[in-house]
C-alpha cells in the first residue's frame, strides 16, 4: 500500500492453485536459529502436512522440516516449533487447495459485472472472472494485516502504474493497479503466506501481478469480501 501522486495530487486514502502452492515464492530465508526439541500443540497436524511420520513427538528431522517451512514463508520464531502460526499457515494452504477450480462456489463475487477481479479475504485467494466464467486463478494473495485491513466492497481500478514506488513505505510496488485509495494489486518478493500481511494492498507473486496487469484495465471492477484470519 502506498500513496499515489498523479498530476500533482495525492490520492488518500488457480490457473490451478496446486502449482502456486508448490512454488518457491522468493521469501528471504530467516537467520539460522536453533532447533527446538519440544513438541508443539499442533505437532501431529504439522507432521501430516509435511509428510512426516505422525507420532506427535518432535524429532531432529521433524524440527528441521518444520524450520525449513518457517524459513521459506518468513514465519518467526523459526525454531521448528509446531505452534499456532505455523499450523495456521498450513491450514490455510489446505483450504486454498480444496477450492480447486471453482473459487466462486459461494456465489459472493458478482457475476453480472462482466470482467471482475475477486478477492476472498477469508481464504486469501483472488481470481478473475467474466460473468460466471473463470478467466484466471484462483491464486493465493497476501492482504492487509490487523489494523491495515484491505477494505471490502465493490470497487473499480482507477489508476495503473507499472513501476510505482510507495512514498509512505519507500518500497517498490511493481504492476500496481489501484482500486481503493492507496490500496492496489501489486507484486512483492515475499511468500504469499508470510505473516502477518500487507499494509492494505493485495500482494501477489510477480507472475500473478503481471497476469493481472495483462487482463485488467482502468474501469474494471474489483470485489473484495470476507475477513482475513487474524484481523
> CA-to-CA gap between the ends?
17 Å
Largest pleated sheet? 5 strands, mixed
Outline type: globular
Class per helix and strand makeup: alpha+beta
Helix residue percentage:
10-25%
Q: What would the average pLDDT be, to the nearest integer?
A: 88
Q: In what range is the share of β-strand residues?
A: 25-35%
Strand order of the largest sheet: 5-4-3-11-6
What is the radius of gyration computed over CA atoms, rounded to a whole number of angstroms?
A: 18 Å
How large is the count of helical segments?
A: 5
Topology:
Elements: E1 4-6, E2 9-11, H1 18-22, H2 43-50, H3 60-73, H4 84-99, E3 115-120, E4 125-130, E5 133-140, E6 153-156, E7 159-165, E8 172-180, E9 183-187, E10 202-204, H5 206-215, E11 221-225
Parallel strand pairs: 3-11, 9-10
Antiparallel strand pairs: 1-2, 3-4, 4-5, 6-11, 7-8, 8-9
Description:
There is one protein chain. This protein is an alpha+beta fold and 231 residues long. Helices cover 23% and strands 26% of the residues. The protein has helices at residues 18-22, 43-50, 60-73, 84-99, 206-215; strands at residues 4-6, 9-11, 115-120, 125-130, 133-140, 153-156, 159-165, 172-180, 183-187, 202-204, 221-225. The strands form three sheets. The chain has a five-stranded mixed sheet, covered by helices on one side. The two termini are 17 Å apart.
